[in-house]
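Technical annex B. To support the medicinal chemistry partners, we prepared a structural model of the target in complex with adenosine-3'-5'-diphosphate, based solely on the information shown next.
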Amino acid sequence: MSMEKAEIVSKPDDLEESWDDEFQKLLQTSPKDRSLAGLDLYFYQGFWFKSRVLKAVISFQEHLRPFDSDVIIATVPKCGTTWLKALTFSVLCRNQFASDENHPLLTFGPHQLVRFLEYDLYYNNPSPDLENDCVYRPRIFSTHVPYSFLPTSIKDSGCKIVFACRNPMDMFISLWFFQNNIIVENAVPLSLDEAFDKFCHGIYEFGPFFDQVLGYWKACQENPDKILFLQYEDLKEDINSHIRNLAVFLGVPFTEEEEEQGVVEEIAKICSFESLKEVEMNKKGMHASGIPNSVFFRKAKVGDWSNYLTPSMVERLEKLIQEKLGDSGLTLKLTCKATSKDHIASA
Ligand code: A3P
């Protein structure tokens, strides 16, 4: 891969003296391990977190007061968050800029237009001013937290949740490359073999994968008007239909006039991997965390895992998929078109 490695100057996240005793104690009594990038992770309520991120999560659980009109983009890391941010923003805010030449995505990165609750807004501030932070309306926030971590203020409000996941083989490879492109001071990245073993044990930030996916899957089955469950592979296969569905789900369907004007196709184009990765801000800009925007754009292929995973790794993950998804009714697509490699976890 041609991307240059990013040097992250901040120290590895760990205990900070300024944190209150209760949180320090929570960390000290939680099981601890290392992320794929070699950073400390803490196991809390069934999932793995970096300490500072967990602090931010607890802050927004306590303080976030959503509007019914807010939209939450919830994703498993490396499953198309950047794409979904661009799509959701373009669908919801499509009447707030004069023309496609003035489209904010030509100037700003998707992660600037839709900010993470835990990495951006609450990262350094337990009670940020969300009112002034969001320029466009409705407000759109994003998060990687599992469904069980969403505050009741979100679950009980009218705000909609758009969730995206991806097959775990591509997700893992995407994550491995991502972590390897971010060198953190004092941290030793893992080899592919070591990283894969950790991934299978669910030990990476926001893991385990299957618990996170199933949490949203079940919630969506119970409340499909509130949660839209998307898969990266489906978006890759037919983006226009998914943009239309997204607009309907969010309560802003395309008018006949917009259809005739080709608005759907324009959104698909402006949000495409090929377009976004050429935008100056995405080539040279930085995310607030110090991560270059360019590392969010790698290959964007379905089935790229087949170039990296050994047959025994594939077998191990296939067994895990079968075991974890079992009778959930959820099908994950390992390749783009339906082939014998697709996993059908039918009831
Ligand atoms: P690969 O590493 O497989 O290329 P996230 O945004 O959740 O961090 O996910 C990153 C993955 O989404 C990367 O996958 C990246 O290349 C891909 N991606 C980024 N922008 C995309 C876009 N506009 N369309 C499709 N895929 C995109």
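Notes passed to the chemistry partners:
The chain has 17 helices and ten strands.
The pocket of adenosine-3'-5'-diphosphate is lined by residues 75, 77-83, 170, 174, 177, 271-273, 276, 296-300, 304 (CB under 6 Å).
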